[in-house]
Amino acid sequence: MGESTLIDGKAIAAQLRAEVAVRVAKLKADHGLVPGLAVVLLGEDAASQVYVRNKAKQTLEAGMASFDHRLDAETSEATLLGLIEKLNADAGVHGILVQLPLPGQIDTARVLNAIDPAKDVDGFHPMNVGRLAAGEDALSPCTPRGCIILAKHVRGDLTGLEAVVIGRSNIVGKPLAQLLLRENATVTVAHSKTRDLPGVARRADLLFAAVGRPQLVTGDWIKPGATVIDVGINRIDTAEGKTKLVGDVDFASAQGIAGAITPVPGGVGPMTIACLLANTLDAACAINGVETPEI
Ligand code: NAD
């Protein structure tokens, strides 16, 4: 077999952001409507700060309004719930994202459940989780939405393909499985209790790894020609005493066996914010009863 095709998430995300920007400009011209995204961050976690800064930058670049709310790590749950109530009522805000994880004094479920489902651009509110499972229109979680776009970029129609998702988190694995069902794939969700994980993985035409275990999936787990989407972001120490980012897939051994594979970084990662922008646009249109503009 030759080299695996590299799935360029960076380029595909840039294309999606450019399309969102065109639609936002149309929405502004036709309806005088500017989608607004509010991001709430508690505490000083360095990785979250970078992520939030990128979100704000890309939101503005897409022509949308960005509202940053930075609160200190000791903020009470009541104060946070008060802010969410204000954002729910704010007509200029169409998307609300609370950066996770939240500090220990705060009940994450209570906070996520307080977000107006119409503004829940992370797709974590039980109403949107339920709608997604019921096959109704819903705001769906950004990372899984990005995974589907990448898979379709390589395979086109996913109907009838064997999809294996490793990981069953509420943020990635479970919603990804729901989205794959909607695409008519045959879906298996594997997890830490799965027997013969390599054997299950080898069944996949589409293999998604969302585990958080560096380089868990090796080449011998991959059916030759399969499309491999690596969601994992893991920091490991190198022999030179530095750190580097790796995925849940051992890229070197997967190379040449997978038909196509996402790199880490530069695969799924950039898709997440692009899909967040797309969700914010969709939310702004739905809240105002207008169709998302065509391009
Ligand atoms: P999580 O810890 O909530 O869930 C991990 C899942 O993997 C669990 O369902 C568990 O059952 C399963 N698992 C754990 N060990 C396993 C093993 N040895 N074999 C099989 N299954 C096992 O993690 P998450 O939030 O879903 O994130 C998973 C990875 O994806 C992490 O590396 C995270 O950093 C990354 N991630 C990336 C993005 C992005 O690209 N933007 C977004 C979210 C998460």
Layout of helices and strands, plus pairs?
Elements: E1 5-6, H1 9-31, E2 36-42, H2 46-61, E3 65-71, H3 77-89, E4 95-98, H4 108-114, H5 126-133, H6 142-155, E5 162-166, H7 173-182, E6 186-190, H8 197-201, E7 206-209, E8 227-230, E9 234-237, E10 243-246, H9 251-254, E11 260-261, H10 269-287
Parallel strand pairs: 1-11, 2-3, 2-4, 5-6, 5-7, 7-8, 8-11
Antiparallel strand pairs: 9-10
The protein binds nicotinamide-adenine-dinucleotide.
Task: Provide a quick synopsis of the model.
Helix content is 40%, strand content 16%. It is an alpha/beta fold and 295 residues long.
Based on the model shown, name its key terms:
Rossmann fold; three-stranded parallel sheet; globular; six-stranded parallel sheet; 295 residues; 16% strand; binds nicotinamide-adenine-dinucleotide; alpha/beta; 10 helices; 2 domains
What does this structure look like?
- By secondary structure, the protein is an alpha/beta fold.
- The strands form three sheets. The chain has a six-stranded parallel β-sheet with strand order 1-11-8-7-5-6. A three-stranded parallel β-sheet has the order 3-2-4, with helices on both faces.
- It is globular, with a radius of gyration of 19 Å.
- The protein folds into two domains: 32-117, Rossmann fold (3-Layer(aba) Sandwich), CATH 3.40.50.10860; 142-270, Rossmann fold, CATH 3.40.50.720.
- Helix 2 (46-61) links the parallel strand 2 and strand 3 (65-71).
- It has helices at 9-31, 46-61, 77-89, 108-114, 126-133, 142-155, 173-182, 197-201, 251-254, 269-287; strands at 5-6, 36-42, 65-71, 95-98, 162-166, 186-190, 206-209, 227-230, 234-237, 243-246, 260-261.
